[in-house]
């Protein structure tokens, strides 16, 4: 009887030692760091089981081979509830941390930045190069964007809010553009409702068009309302806006970096040296500050502005004062290298002023 008791005790001790050793091995694996030395994007396909996960992690050199991995998932079943997706793994992350991340379903988010002042075509190029994004747009035509987003306008230029957007893997380009469009529509609605009275805009599209021109004309926050006042005053007097960015937009791919007299005189739907009104739509994607400036221009008599040589502009109410400002700018340009082309364009613009 005594021998039997000793045998049972010995067996219990051995079993406890084996179990304890196994648990130590499992804990050691769980707390061991992954093999990665830099941030790694890992995708767990849908339908992957425990064995498939283990094989993937080993084949991609994320985790070392261990007979204890399956035991870890059995010992801590909450770690086995992993979800398919694309995840961002960081250096120093442990096996437990990896499994907790996969169980949380918190997929990696990727940023895409849409910059104010750019055209929608430039945004589409950014989307084309965005990693892990699913592309539903078959081409970069603005009409295709309008159709994909089910917009009434065939040309949706300008109707997207510039910001940094986050997306997860396999989200579509259309869904990102939809978010940006919805935000811009909401902002334009708010600005339109709070706009100053007696502005020469027929609808929200004209407000947005003016904002896009302001966006292209200046990056200085304290100038936007003055720029707006110049163009609003001109519209009220029936004067042509005569703004270069509209000419450039109307030229499309024909623009090569400089404007000539022929460019200023060649009619397009957007050439405000030719048309006596706002162009038919935005020429870029404006930011909120430019929208507010278009809705709340300062009260002024300004009809002209020209670069002042220090990043801003000189504003004038008469052509004589404007010509003096142009002469001052020209003098500065004469002192700068490679100034002849810029001066010639400004001379052509001044000649066209009425």
TrEMBL record:
The record marks 217 as: Important for catalytic activity. Transmembrane segments: none annotated. Keywords: Cell inner membrane, Cell membrane, Cell wall biogenesis/degradation, Lyase, Membrane, Transmembrane, Transmembrane helix. It holds the Pfam family YceG. It catalyses: a peptidoglycan chain = a peptidoglycan chain with N-acetyl-1,6-anhydromuramyl-[peptide] at the reducing end + a peptidoglycan chain with N-acetylglucosamine at the non-reducing end. The keyword Isomerase does not apply. Residues 335-354 are annotated as: Disordered. The keyword Lyase applies. Its EC number is 4.2.2.29. It is an enzyme of class 4 (lyase). Belongs to the transglycosylase MltG family. Functions as a peptidoglycan terminase that cleaves nascent peptidoglycan strands endolytically to terminate their elongation. This is Endolytic murein transglycosylase. It comes from Tatumella punctata.
């Amino acid at each position: 009887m005594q021998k039997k008791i000793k045998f049972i005790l010995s067996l219990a001790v051995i079993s406890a030692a084996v179990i304890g050793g196994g648990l130590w091995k499992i804990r050691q694996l769980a707390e061991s760091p992954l093999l990665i030395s830099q941030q790694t994007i890992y995708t767990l396909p849908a339908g992957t089981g425990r064995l498939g996960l283990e094989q993937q992690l080993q084949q991609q050199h994320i985790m070392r081979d261990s007979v204890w991995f399956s035991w870890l998932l059995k010992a801590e079943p909450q770690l086995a509830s992993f979800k398919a997706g694309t995840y961002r793994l960081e250096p120093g992350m442990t096996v437990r941390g990896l499994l907790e991340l996969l169980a949380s379903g918190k997929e990696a988010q990727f940023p895409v930045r849409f910059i104010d002042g750019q055209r929608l075509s430039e945004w589409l190029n950014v989307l084309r190069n965005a990693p892990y994004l699913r592309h539903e747009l078959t081409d970069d035509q603005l009409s295709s964007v309008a159709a994909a987003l089910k917009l009434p306008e065939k040309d949706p230029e300008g109707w997207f809010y510039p910001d940094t957007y986050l997306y997860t893997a396999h989200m579509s380009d259309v869904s990102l553009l939809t978010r940006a469009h919805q935000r811009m529509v909401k902002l334009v609605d708010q600005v339109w409702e709070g706009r100053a009275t007696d502005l020469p805009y027929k609808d929200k599209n004209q407000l947005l068009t003016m904002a896009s021109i302001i966006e292209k004309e200046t990056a200085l926050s304290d100038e936007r309302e003055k720029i707006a006042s110049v163009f609003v005053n001109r519209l009220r007097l029936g004067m042509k806006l005569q703004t270069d960015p509209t000419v450039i937009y109307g030229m499309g791919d024909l623009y090569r970096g400089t404007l000539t007299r022929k460019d200023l005189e060649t009619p397009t739907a957007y050439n405000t040296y030719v048309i006596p009104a706002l162009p038919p739509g935005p020429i870029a994607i404006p930011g909120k500050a430019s929208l507010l400036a278009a809705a709340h221009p300062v009260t002024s008599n300004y009809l002209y502005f020209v670069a002042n040589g220090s990043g801003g502009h000189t504003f004038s109410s008469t052509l004589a004062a404007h010509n003096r400002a142009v002469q001052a700018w020209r003098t500065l340009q004469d002192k700068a290298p490679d100034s002849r082309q810029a001066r010639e364009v400004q001379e052509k613009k001044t000649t066209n002023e009425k």
